[in-house]
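Narrative of accomplishments. A recurring question from our advisory board has been how the design workflow behaves on a single, concrete structure rather than in aggregate. To address it, we present the structure tokens for one chain from the evaluation set, followed by the sequence designed for it. No filtering or post-editing was applied between the two.
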């Protein structure tokens, strides 16, 4: 069996959202993500956003079926499933709070770093996390 260890990376994942423009507004205007693409297609748009520090992009997708619509805000099954890393927790926590992002808890210090859970406007649970250095 051949092991593939080079050349693979997670490039993007799809986040089902109810409205393209509302999602772009949140990720770009509130969080400071970059709008990488917004390409009209028949019946949908190809929209990708990514955080300014790099990492995997989000493909923002409106639902095409009732089953997909039911998944809005619950793609992680109620768990935190998206992790936004920062190099300065206090700065980004304050900026996000001032912009209206609702945190579910105060910041907490764990062995791996400082973290707090928040929800995006669509119901998805995220961690804002600054990993412990060293």
């Amino acid at each position: 069996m051949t092991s593939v260890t080079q050349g693979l990376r997670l490039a993007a994942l799809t986040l089902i959202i109810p409205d393209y423009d509302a999602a772009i507004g949140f990720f770009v205007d509130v969080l400071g993500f970059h709008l990488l693409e917004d390409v009209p297609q028949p019946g949908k748009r190809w929209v990708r956003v990514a955080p300014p520090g790099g990492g995997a992009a989000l493909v923002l997708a409106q639902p095409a079926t009732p089953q997909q619509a039911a998944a809005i805000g619950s793609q992680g099954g109620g768990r935190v499933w998206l992790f936004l890393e920062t190099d300065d927790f206090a700065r980004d926590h304050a900026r996000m709070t001032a912009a209206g992002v609702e945190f579910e808890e105060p910041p907490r210090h764990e062995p791996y770093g400082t973290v707090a859970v928040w929800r995006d406007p669509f119901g998805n649970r995220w961690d804002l996390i600054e990993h412990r250095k060293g």
